[in-house]
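Researcher: Good morning. I'm working through a list of sequences from a screen, and I'd like to move beyond sequence-only analysis. For each chain I'm collecting a predicted structure so we can compare shapes side by side. This is the next one on the list. No need for commentary yet; just the structure.
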Amino acid sequence: MRPVRILMLMLCGCWMLFAHLAHASDSTDSIASANCPPLPQPIDPAEVDNGMRVAQDRGYLWRIVRDNRVSWLYGTIHLARREWVFPGPQVRGAWREADRLALEIDPLEPGVLAAMGKSAVAAADATPLPAPLAARLRVQAASACIGDKLVSMRPEFQAITLTVLAGRRQGLDPAFGIDIVLSTMAHAAGKPVLSLETSGLQMKALLGSGGPAEVNAFVSQTLDELETNVMHKTLVRLARAWSESRLDDLSNYAEWCECLKTEVDRRAYARLIDARNPGLARGIAAAHANGQSVFAAVGALHMVGPQGLPALLAAMGFTVERISFPVLRPGSL
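Model: Good morning. Structure tokens for this chain:
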């Protein structure tokens, strides 16, 4: 089984739990060693002032209109570079115009992180991984400088987490996820935040319900791609497409990601993306119908194709207009 879940995670998942796992330790543990990527540091006020002054629009933004009221749809990324956390002028303007923020799930909502963590813990009677696979996981955990934080987690969750953390060596860190930035801005400004999904729904979509054989196959192939650096290249290309607002590259990723070749992969994609999109669209439409302008920020893969949110909202009677951003010079990823 190819790790289609991982390829989509950076654009559609339970990313704040990974940020918590990656950075929960203090500077005295293995994460601080010279061979490890540096821990993300807090952004100070001076950096905020300069960052906002030079910020560029990134990602994908749509203006959606129904009943003579304007709302906004924004495709985000959940692994990002430090400099990407500052919204550009058009994104910032749309966010300011909106009465409320809608996210897949509000990372600052009390209890969310604990509920996700509980769902990720392995059951006491779960079938253990074969010893060789468990040993390979330990090697990758050491390489990711995460110590023993994952040992109590479900094996497939361990594998997914290690893949997400591989991006940190290129500065792609869940601590800089765009959604958590928007949530922080909204809470600081007193702007209401709506969760379009529950933590249980997201974890169920992410982890699925495979038996031991499927779990072993998933972990094995994930480790194959970690060990051969294949996944790293895909993460970087997805991040670059988001940073440069190249919706065409994102829309065509099935042609280059090598992640949707089997029926199992396609079912996983349908569960993670297509099956969730109608509920997300209904939630956005309901918030808009309540008489408020909504800034709906959702993982960018939810935006593409005939089952993407722009298409679904258009079918629900919204006028949907893509907002073009200035073309950025290709990044250094």
